[in-house]
């Protein structure tokens, strides 16, 4: 989900700090043997992101908004799981990622991102995470390219929302 958030928000007015925070948090979470001492504070910072703020419209329907919402929510649950060690938080994190990929499949017609995400999650809990970083990175790039192809023409031309 990180390439979606970063790729869709980089260059956005006033979002540089959010993108940096997201990247740093994901990087730090990859060191699963080192719980983050500031995970609770990171959750509070993340919850101030526009993607996680309620709006009067309450429904996000644009390609960028939907994907960055799910990416922010995945990071939120990952940070909560890191902080608490709770299996329930980890399951919620995985569920949000699966939901996002299921929606992406529906919008892409015939795509297999949900199956790919199932595979990545299975690999992550198998006890042998060899190759997980590389597989996740490639999956993220594929997802970003797919979403980029669905984004409005003005956005794809470099004008971010």
Describe the structure.
With 161 residues, the protein is mainly alpha-helical. The protein has one domain. Helices cover 68% and strands 0% of the residues. It is built from eight helices and no strands. Helix 1 crosses helix 7 and helix 2 crosses helix 4.
Number of domains: 1
Order of helical and strand elements: HHHHHHHH
Radius of gyration equals 15 Å
Biggest sheet overview: none
Classification by helices and strands: mainly alpha
Number of separate helices? 8
Instruction: State mean pLDDT (0 to 100 scale).
Output: 87
Number of strands: 0
Query: Approximately what portion of the residues adopt beta-strand conformation?
Result: under 5%
Helix content: 55-70%
Would you identify the regions where 5 or more consecutive residues have pLDDT less than 50?
A: 154-161
Q: Shape, please?
A: globular
Task: Give a short synopsis of this structure.
The chain has helices at residues 2-9, 16-29, 39-46, 63-84, 87-108, 113-124, 132-150, 153-156. It is mainly alpha-helical and 161 residues long.
Considering the chains and any ligands shown, give keywords for the structure:
161 residues, mainly alpha, 8 helices, globular
List the helices and strands and how they pair.
Layout: H1 2-9, H2 16-29, H3 39-46, H4 63-84, H5 87-108, H6 113-124, H7 132-150, H8 153-156
Helix pairs in contact: 1-2, 1-4, 1-7, 2-4, 3-4, 4-5, 5-6, 6-7
């Amino acid at each position: 989900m990180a390439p979606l958030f970063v790729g869709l928000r980089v260059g956005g007015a006033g979002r540089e700090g959010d993108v940096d925070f997201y990247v740093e948090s994901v990087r730090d979470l990859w060191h699963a043997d080192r719980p983050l001492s500031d995970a609770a504070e990171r959750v509070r910072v993340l919850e101030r992101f526009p993607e996680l703020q309620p709006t009067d419209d309450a429904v996000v329907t644009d390609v960028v908004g939907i994907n960055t919402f799910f990416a922010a929510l995945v990071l939120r649950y990952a940070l909560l799981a890191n902080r608490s060690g709770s299996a329930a938080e980890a399951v919620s994190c995985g569920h949000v990622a699966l939901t996002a990929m299921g929606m992406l499949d529906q919008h892409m017609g015939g795509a297999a991102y949900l199956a790919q995400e199932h595979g990545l999650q299975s690999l992550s809990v198998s006890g042998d995470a060899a190759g997980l970083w590389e597989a996740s990175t490639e999956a993220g790039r594929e997802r970003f390219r797919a979403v980029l192809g669905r984004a409005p023409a003005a956005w794809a031309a470099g004008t971010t929302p």
